[in-house]
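Section 3.1 - Work completed
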Amino acid sequence: MPITAVDSVMVEAEAAAFAKRSVKGEAATQGMRMALSMLDLTTLEGKDSPQKVRALCRKAVQPCGAMPDLPHVAAVCVYPAFVALAKRELDGTGVRVASVATAFPSGQYPLSVRLADVRAVVDAGADEVDMVINRGAFLAGDRETVSDEIRRVKETCAGAHLKVILETGELETYENIRRASDLAIEAGADFIKTSTGKIKPAATMPVVLVMLHAIRDHYLRTGCMIGMKPAGGISTAGAALSYLVMVKETLGDAWLTPDCFRFGASSLANDLLRQLARQATGSDTAKYDFSEA
């Protein structure tokens, strides 16, 4: 695979320009509704419980009871133990069930264990599998192992969509992020995803722009559309709108759907709801007006 150079200065300047773009009025309202429909509501904590997952599923289907016309979110993402429960709760709603797998978040288990993890979540009904790459192997230069593991996971996914998490905060350089993006795409990723949400920095606009360039170049070369998911660190409606502008101008309108773009940022949901409520009523709302689940 040829190595694509990354001009760091240009990437950061272009990303900064997108961050300064202003979206207002009806365009902002439509953009926030779109962002809500692209959310993967996520709970990945040691204290997760069936009650919390049920509450998250309810919120995914009906984000705000006071605004029943809002779209449902794209997916609910949970640990493997809760996939079957989420599948039952979301049956027939149009909300997909995603599960982390492959020894999330470290990826540092034997491949046989990671593949068994994938088989278990697919058998439990997961529509989407979020895997983490072996960053240690990647940084050691063993790209063939990383590529082979992604291919093996893709095969194990059967019909489930595969989101490949690069954990960009550990990849050190834009060049490494670009190489990891190209590698994941060539190995069969349906989506490439920035982060687990457990490492900082997580998603940043320059990092996402580098990944969007990889998706664009692959599309121009093959005609195949790969999805993108920034995850972690996106918490405001304004930031979400900036990302949508960047996607539109880098990849085009075809990517502005939940099938091709997702936000992995559960904290973003309530800020979108607050801003949409403010536009609808003219009044500010408090954080406690919306459920955390």
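Second construct:
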Amino acid sequence: MAVHSVTDAFSTGECDHIVASIADTPTDNALLVGRNRDHNLRDAELVWMDDVEDLNWVMTRLIELVRHSNKHQFDFDLREFAESPQVAGYDATKGGHFGWHSDIGHGRVAGKRKLTLVLQLTNPDTYDGGDLEIMPGSHILSASRSQGSVSVFPSFVLHQVTPVKRGFRRSLTVWAHGPPFR
């Protein structure tokens, strides 16, 4: 299996707390690996968690989720979390989306990404579209839309966020890093 899912990794209250904690943090336009901007591929706004106070408990939980997923599912050589978690916001009024891509790219840090973890922060009743789709092989899998659910998958696997048609979707992403794949 190429995706490890945990449907109740965070409670609704914890997700709402994360969203409330970033509410006053300035956002950046989402860039692609290599610091490029391409709204045809991705239109989202980002908040980096290292810019937010009092959310250390979130990273502690994310580390444990990755550790558990890796132990029971992937068995990759993981060594660090070299990037801050990011919260992405996808706005229907801007056609928020992220087309098919993998999370491994060129560069010192992006080339070491081994596992991607995505936490669904938004109540699925508040938006339409915005599905996280993962293609580990010839079949497309849809990640759980449940608020608080987590999907963990190899960073080289193709995935996308379909366009948000109504409302606003937020998710949190973090990567576990290790030596390059051989």
